[in-house]
Design a protein that fits this description.
The chain is of the alpha/beta class. It is 41% helix and 14% strand. The mean pLDDT is 92.
Length: 372
């Protein structure tokens, strides 16, 4: 019989090692970001006394105490970690974001920490104070007159620079580990553990990217908790109509900075939200001022949206004889808005009448009744 000829293995194809992004640089960048998380992750949870709602405890997680002054500090760090761990950010990568302000402040902070250039694409109507904060953190601001073009313009600038568009509106829900790993939901429940009602009846948040509501909504389901998630939404936003089944884009942007969008953003997950409340813009501004008068907490207008919704829920619980707790957020610092929402002339020029909403807030706070 003829002898068999041994088969010859196919040659190994070696394309060489990837050298960009440099692995040593990436390791050091991740160390810096994780060190920041260790320093800054647990913001204070403040218990607020509601004289008229004795059955209900209200807590505010003060995200304004982050180094960059807002809830978006968490998101900015998560997006940079997402880019680094996916091999998208290296030592010379230009990072670009479409942002209404606070996310860009935080991302500029982290870009400077890592030594990479950062460009924020934002509407020209963004408050001058926020623009100054971004520039103070080392970022560059690229302003556009039409807010609906920020996405495409950010992508164009990133492509032109050979960089990366972080795209907070698509990546917020995937960049954060919703199962735990020191996210905001895990932090809330750890801090509530010793309270009288440790599992909140409601957690009340707004939606800008939708990442916070997605993280909390998934976490409470994963942990099999009874907590319900309420998203408060300003006028003209696409989120509330989308939750109701209408996913069409709105025609105008929100007038409450940081929350509400003119389109349904990919990171907003309606199915993990239990309830949504539409909050008039004047009510958000009135609630911001009311919170400062009653507690001394000086916060931005999106916090006012949270407070208005949280007080409505508290009054409902009180009226129903239901005890429990409600948790919401202080989203950012109020001094960023001293030239706008905190300025009486600006408010009057925009046509906002705050008096009626101040009365609604006082009735809920002092007597546990909702008159709206």
């Amino acid at each position: 019989m003829p002898s068999s000829t041994p088969s010859v293995p196919a040659p190994l194809i070696d394309t060489g090692m990837r050298t960009e992004p440099d692995r040593a640089w990436v390791r050091e960048a991740i160390r810096k970001l994780r060190a920041d998380a260790t320093r800054t992750s647990d913001t204070h949870l403040i218990k607020v006394h509601l004289p008229g709602c004795g059955r209900v405890d209200l807590y505010l997680k003060d995200e304004s105490t982050h180094p960059t002054g807002s809830l978006k500090h968490r998101l900015g760090r998560s997006l940079f970690l997402y880019g680094l761990c996916n091999g998208l950010i290296g030592p010379s990568t230009t990072v670009v974001e479409a942002s209404s302000g606070s996310t860009a402040v935080s991302e500029a902070h982290f870009a400077r920490m890592l030594g990479v250039p950062f460009v924020a694409v934002m509407a020209s109507s963004t408050s001058p104070a926020k623009i100054k904060l971004i520039e103070r953190e080392g970022g560059t601001c690229h302003l556009v007159d039409d807010p609906t073009t920020v996405y495409d313009e950010a992508r164009r600038l990133a492509d032109a620079a050979g960089g990366i568009y972080l795209d907070q509106f698509s990546n917020a829900e995937r960049a954060t580990d919703w199962r735990g790993n020191n996210n905001i939901a895990e932090s809330i429940f750890e801090q509530m553990a010793m309270e009288e009602h440790p599992v909140p009846t409601w957690i009340v948040v707004g939606a800008g990217t939708g990442g916070t509501s997605a993280t909390i909504g998934r976490f409470v389901r994963y942990q099999a908790l009874d907590t319900q998630v309420c998203v408060v939404d300003p006028e003209r936003s696409a989120f509330l109509p989308a939750w109701q089944g209408d996913g069409e884009a709105r025609l105008e942007p929100s007038r409450i900075e940081g929350i509400g969008r003119a389109r349904l953003e990919p990171s907003f997950l309606p199915l993990v939200v239990d309830r949504m409340l539409g909050v008039p813009d004047a009510a958000s501004i009135a609630a911001t001022r009311f919170l400062r008068e009653r507690t001394g907490i000086h916060a931005g207008p999106s916090t006012g949206t949270n407070i208005y919704g949280a007080l409505k829920l508290a009054a409902e619980m009180q009226s129903a004889g239901q005890g429990g707790s409600i948790v919401s957020l202080v989203c950012d610092r109020g001094d960023r808005y001293d030239d706008s929402y905190n300025n009486d002339a600006w408010v009057a020029q925009k046509g906002h009448d705050l008096a009626a909403y101040a009365a609604v807030l006082a009735a809920a706070w002092d007597h546990g009744t909702w008159i709206g």
